[in-house]
Every structure is written in structure tokens, then in C-alpha cells.
User: Which sequence fits this backbone?
């Protein structure tokens, strides 16, 4: 049986029920930890599942932030310090990663509170997550205020990138499944993945074929 | 071994290699088909992997579009007709979904060319994908031009929602894994998922616990 809800029925749901539903229908999302430093040099860490690709050249990535959430520490720090890190979540530390969404006071580092280790690499001025297998350092580029509901799109440029060598494919693709990265759905559901296939670049006159995985 | 690349090394990669790499490092993404009608009433369908949650009340969803890509038909149609659909991709039709990214001429419907069926439901003025198990109808709300690189964030409001009853949880969560939705990485890699756990709402003073899945 198929459930059908219209906009009045969605609006009429209880608040938490609506949040759980609407957050789950986007499809699978990434699970990423964003690391920052505040003006006193104290570290902050928060989980996000709205990281998106904005462009490849230059390499731009963005994420959506709610100004009224605990995540405001992240935005404040990025605007003050101009740098942040994006760190992939894996199965070994997804509970610690989830725990960073608790509303800790600003003087508490989620690294300490949640049992994850900050690491500074190649003079990048924001903390990476040691337990993450894929780590990205970004410089802040632009804040876009979404007038509709007060959310904010934060865009950064990739200036450092770390990933496991065994996950690097000949064509440049980084096999994040092989690197242990997990997926998320809704606000709280974490998922391992199992590749069906990579498909060839689509052209109008032929069917896509499955690509062989070729690592460097 | 960990690979380290800085921004000069990323910029120095061959174009397709850089695109493959940068598109894969966001983490897992959704795979969604966006359905529209043009001014003559002809249908268009294109795969996107940048759908994001913008808000739950009202229920807003967005996606990123490159103006110079084949996907411009989607943007033109949304601006002209004000309505579009988002349809989850599943394992049974992921090859047809991928094939919609080929550069078909504007007079060709990707539904016909790729072997997917349009369906119109409850007087919504854009085509849903019959083969999708989760279907969302949206009204166009806002176009935000990202000056940095000319990409565009398109935001819609959810006005219709269809999903399988067996995937509906008591707390409102829609179990998209149970509904057959698959994940994507990079530009061309498709993945089934296997839930590790849902975790309880994080609070500073206690560890998260695994939630039991309870369906309606």
C-alpha cells in the first residue's frame, strides 16, 4: 500500500514526527564531522549530513546550517577563523560522531566530550578528526542566507585532502566505501554500503555498462 | 598509506580525474530523478545527487544545478511551470536513472529514451516516476545564484508525498532502505545500504543508545 500525504497533512503532523519524516525523504545523506577552532583556539566538532558538491574546479563544497541550533558554534568559528575541516564518519566511530549533536556548552570541546581526537596536519589552522579516514581542509568562501526560513549555506574551497591510498582509483575516483565511509538517513539512522556498480558515462546512443574497479 | 593533496595538486589534476575525485569526497549522496514538464507539456527527467533538506516546517528541499549542463532543461521547466517532482532511485531501475544524464535533445523525453514511465497523481502538474517507491511533489519557491561559480540552488516546498506504508515508522521516520532507495557516490557509483543502527537523540549527559525499529 502507498501512503499519500498532501501539504496540509504534512503541516498537521506533530513537530518531531514531521521532522523525522521530512529529514528522511531526501534520500541517503553523508555523515560528516566539521571541525573548527574558536577565537581562543579551543576546538569544536559537530556532525552534519548536508554536505554538497558545489564545483570541481576550483573544488568547492557547501553545507546547510540552522542558525538556531547547537551548530551555531561551527558557523561563528568559521566566520571568525576562516577555516574548517570536513571529516568522513565510519562505522568504528559513528556513535561518537552522533554524540557531537548534543547541546554542549560553548566552552566544552566535543572532541573531549565525545571521545574523538583532534589532529593538526601540514599547518592547516583547524582540527582534523584522527579517527576519520577521509579528511578535507577548507577555506571559507561565502555565506548565503536563505531568506525562506533563515537557514544558511556555507561554502568552502578545498585546500587540503587526505584519503587512504588503497581507495584511490586510476580515474581519480576515491572509493569512499572501501575507505569505510558510512551513509546516513533521516536524523539518526546510519548505514553501511555495498556497491552495486559504477556505470559508464551516459551517452544518448548507448546503454551504460558496469565499470571495472581499477585502483592505483 | 595516506595520500595528501594540497590545492595546487588538486588544481593540477587532469579535468576528468579532478571531477571524479572532488565529486566523491563529499561522502554518500542521494540518487533522485527530477521530473518536470516544459511549456508544451512534454516531460523531462534528469538524475541529481545533490538534493538537500532545507527545512521541515514548511517542508523545503533544495538541489544544486549547473547552468551549463544538460540539466538546464530541468531548471527552465521549473521556472516556467513552477512545479517539479523528486523520485528516489532503487536497484531495479538505477541503470535507466543513470541514463537520464545523457545529453538528449530538448524535444526527447528521458522517460521514453531511458525506459521509465511517467505517472500523474492527484492533479499534480508534473510527472512522477512510476518505478520510484518514494515520490515527492514540490512547488518552486526560490532560485539562489551562487556567484562563486555560477551554480544555482533551487528550492521547492513539498506539497505531495508518496511512500510505501510498510516503510513508515511510528515516530514519523520513513525507512528509505526498506523502501529500496539506494545511495550514490561520486558521479557514477551506486550502492545498496545495510542499516547499522538508528541512534537516540543525543544529550550531553548520556551516551546514545540504539533505537528499535518500530513500524506503523
Assistant:
Amino acid at each position: 500500500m502507498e501512503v499519500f500525504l498532501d501539504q496540509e497533512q504534512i503541516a498537521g503532523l506533530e513537530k518531531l514526527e514531521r521532522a523525522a519524516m521530512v529529514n528522511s525523504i531526501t534520500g541517503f545523506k553523508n555523515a560528516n564531522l566539521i571541525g573548527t577552532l574558536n577565537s581562543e583556539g579551543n576546538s569544536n566538532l559537530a556532525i552534519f549530513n548536508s554536505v554538497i558538491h558545489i564545483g570541481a574546479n576550483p573544488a568547492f563544497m557547501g553545507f546547510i546550517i540552522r542558525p538556531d541550533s547547537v551548530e551555531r558554534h561551527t558557523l561563528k568559528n568559521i566566520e571568525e577563523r576562516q577555516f574548517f575541516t570536513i571529516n568522513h564518519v565510519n562505522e568504528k566511530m559513528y556513535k561518537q560522531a552522533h554524540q557531537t549533536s548534543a547541546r554542549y556548552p560553548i566552552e566544552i570541546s566535543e572532541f573531549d566530550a565525545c571521545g574523538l581526537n583532534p589532529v593538526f596536519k601540514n599547518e592547516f589552522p583547524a582540527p582534523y578528526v584522527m579517527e576519520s579516514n577521509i579528511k578535507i581542509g577548507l577555506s571559507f568562501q561565502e555565506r548565503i542566507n536563505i531568506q525562506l526560513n533563515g537557514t544558511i549555506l556555507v561554502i568552502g574551497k578545498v585546500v587540503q585532502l587526505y584519503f587512504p591510498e588503497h581507495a584511490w582509483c586510476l580515474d581519480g575516483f576515491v572509493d569512499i566505501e572501501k575507505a569505510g565511509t558510512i551513509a546516513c538517513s533521516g536524523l539518526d539512522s546510519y548505514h553501511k554500503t555495498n556497491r552495486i556498480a559504477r556505470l559508464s558515462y551516459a551517452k544518448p546512443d548507448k546503454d551504460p555498462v558496469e565499470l571495472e574497479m581499477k585502483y592505483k
Notes: The mean pLDDT of chain A is 96.
